[in-house]
Amino acid sequence: MNIEEYRGVWVFIEQRDGQLVDVGLELLGAGRDLADKLEVDLCGILLGHHVKELSNELFEYGADKVYVIDDPVLANYRTETYMKAVGDLVRKYKPEIFVYGATANGKDLASAVATEVMTGLTADTTILDVDVEKRLFEASRPAFGGNIMATILCKKHRPQMATVRPKVMKKLEPQPGRQGEIIEETIDLKEDDLRTKVLEIVRNAKKAVNLEDADIIVAAGKGIKDEKGFKMVEALADVLNATVGASRDVVEAGLCGHDHQVGQTGVTVTPKLYFAIGISGAVQHTVGMANSETIIAINTDPDAAIFNVSHYGVVADAFEIVPLLTEEFRKALQVKTEEGGVAHV
Amino acid sequence: MNILVCIKQVPDTKIIKVNPKTNTLDRSSAPAILNPYDAHAVEEAVRLKKIHGGKVVVLSMGPPQAKEAIKKCVEIGADEGYLISDRRFAGADTLATSYALYKAIQKLMDEDGIDLVLCGKHAIDGDTGQVGPGIARRMEIPPLTNVIKVEEVDPAEKMIKVRRKIENGYEIIQSTLPCLLTVEKEINEVAYSPLPNMLRAARYNPIVWTVDDLKDVDMKQLGLKGSPTIVGKMWPPAKSDGAQMLDDEGDVKKQAEKIVSLVLEKRELFEAKGGER
Ligand SMILES: Cc1cc2nc3c(=O)[nH]c(=O)nc-3n(C[C@H](O)[C@H](O)[C@H](O)COP(=O)(O)OP(=O)(O)OC[C@H]3O[C@@H](n4cnc5c(N)ncnc54)[C@H](O)[C@@H]3O)c2cc1C
Ligand SMILES: Nc1ncnc2c1ncn2[C@@H]1O[C@H](COP(=O)(O)O)[C@@H](O)[C@H]1O
Predict the structure, then answer these.
(1) Distance between CA A143 and CA A146 in Å, rounded?
(2) In the record's cofactor note, how is the cofactor described as bound (chain A) (predicted)?
(3) Which of A103, A203, B114, B123 has the lowest CB atom count within 10 Å?
(4) Would the CB of B131 count as within 6 Å of ligand 2?
(5) Is A278 annotated as a binding residue?
């Protein structure tokens, strides 16, 4: 492999039912910065059926070029077809960096492509940078059970690949009318020769738990111990009309569903207010909430790492302070309603 | 139906400690366990075997201690277990891991056919989920990831239908056999092992292979040498200015009042959406 032949930054653009998925636009934002530093084009890889029109939006969000393959066999995501299409593009156009959203399909595709073209892939990265002189991609992620960040490098293989979780990177402000080049490619696969078929796709109308859009999140950590503690946190969330979040340990203890998990393997959130109650602040948790507007942490341990990423901290026993908070908020918010100010149930 | 399950022994990341001085992992601080997702994969294999017959074989790459994780799988109901263990495998990233496992799978296939390969969704020590699709690509069989339910298997027609978890829902996908599934925890409950399994596991001795037991191995693709990714620098996550501590000499009531007034100052939180509720 002559790595000098590889140039350009690529972003896999996921679409679902003909709609762009946000993470692709977020990665164009991050990719723009890398491409500018390396002085190369930023390219979107767009696969599907009847999707070419989406390219214009990609240009507005920062892409210089979009490689499109529009074919009925690509209508729904399948590893079999997408791996072939992306593998062919990589072999033909040789990008140096290639990033994918860490969604179910994005991770699946990136893993298959990494083996297909024999290169390195770093999962669930949270920071992307580049050593311009060596043209070396620096993909960083939390590692080793928390407490530590590691930069993963891929020196001798190209493209250098990574997956990035949704909501970690920021979209650029779209520039209406910004133009770019569309390069159309084809895929040589016939439906009858394929081994897999998507029979049905079922999307829940509304997610039961919608942490991503919540203004207030009250999150419980293992410090709340058991079901009683969890109920106590729920009661506080209730008076604040907040959504309940949780650390992985709370989810694994069976106190709530995985939908509630905040962090590296849960969701990334950016509410206006985040209560961290009995959460130690392992990096896998904090990468998912550190960008919240205001963070208030409650923990019995004055040295807990969560205080490093919080705006306000209280060293207190959750079992004492949370019921007090619930009561105080209930009073305060009810009074307001009576004054005719805010309706709050 | 012959089912192969790839399983990994992992440190229990819930307890593992990092040495704050050297920024390295203190592996001795955490007990080694069977990767929880892999336990579900073995359980599912055993369930399918009960319906369709055949056997369940587990395969792992790791140090000699990983035999314990294999014995755990025998407890769940696996028939046989193989460990590939050799210093030359050490330091493997996901690409080199899938290569080594693939070489062992080839050898197993020479002995017996494989109709289905199962892996966990990911291993909890790295959370990459890359090894399963990697093995499938090398075997040239379809990978079906994030499976939450096996809807239907027809070994005679060489067909399987599974339910895959995707964002905001699921999809039903059909594939020819053989194929590879990576499973989520929702797929089943790992049942308590019946006593005969426990007894069998206690006496069971997994078969151990070294690199020399495998055929046509390209040494350049093994271990550290075969791993395109390397760890560059490591650092403790950024410490910000830290929180403003509301101490009030530990008076909980005062602390609570302070929090309440701080929060209520953010009026927009309570006003903007008031009407909708
Ligand atoms: C690959 C990988 C991915 C991961 N992904 C995630 C993820 O997405 N999300 C996530 O959250 N974690 C994740 N983790 C786990 C993470 O490393 C931590 O183990 C986890 O976040 C710890 O949860 P915790 O803070 O609730 O529990 P603990 O670390 O046990 O902390 C409990 C805290 O509660 C405090 N406490 C105890 N009693 C009280 C009391 N009465 N009142 C107030 N405070 C009290 C303690 O001082 C302590 O700080 C991941 C780990 C790995 C290895
Ligand atoms: N060393 C290994 N030995 C056997 N199976 C493995 C090994 N590493 C990973 N796997 C399998 O691949 C899955 C995903 O692992 P990972 O890609 O490391 O997250 C695991 O759940 C296992 O089924």
Answers:
(1) 6
(2) Binds 1 FAD per dimer.
(3) A203
(4) yes
(5) yes
Cβ–Cβ below 8 Å for A149 and B234: yes
- Tell me, in angstroms, the distance from the centre of ligand 1 to residue B165's CA: 26
Q: What is the pLDDT of residues A153-209, one digit of tens each?
A: 999 999 999 999 888 898 999 999 999 999 999 999 999 999 999 999 998 766 678
Distance B94 CA to ligand 2 centre (A): 8
CA torsion B264-B268-B273-B274 (nearest 10°) is 40
- B276 and B142 in a common domain: no
Topology at the third CATH level for domain A3-193: Rossmann fold (3.40.50)
pLDDT at position B136 is: 98
Bigger pLDDT: A313 vs A148: A313
Closest atom of ligand 2 to B128 CA is: 19
Nearest ligand by distance to the CA of B101: 2
User: Which helix (H) or strand (E) element contains residue A91?
Assistant: helix A79-93
User: Which parts of A176-309 fold into alpha helices (H)?
Assistant: 227-240, 248-252, 283-286, 306-309
Number of domains in chain B: 2
- Please indicate whether the domains covering A3-193 and A211-338 agree at the CATH topology level: yes
For residue B54, give its domain range.
Answer: 2-221
Same domain as B200, residue B97? yes
For chain A, the structural domain boundaries read: 3-193, 211-338
Q: CB distance from A267 to chain B under 8 Å?
A: no
| A55 marked ligand binding residue | no
Residue B188 has pLDDT above 50, yes or no: yes
**Encoding tokens for residue A93?**
């156009």
Pairwise CA distance, residues A245 & A233, whole Å: 10
Instruction: Please tell me the distance from the alpha carbon of residue A202 to that of residue A190, in angstroms, as a whole number.
Output: 25
> Rounded to two decimals, what is the model's pTM?
0.83
Tell me the pLDDT tens digit for each residue of A85-96: 999 999 999 999
Measured in Å, residue A17 CA sits from the centre of ligand 2 at: 32
The CATH number of A211-338 is which of 3.30.420.40, 3.30.70.1050, 3.40.50.1220, 3.40.630.30? 3.40.50.1220
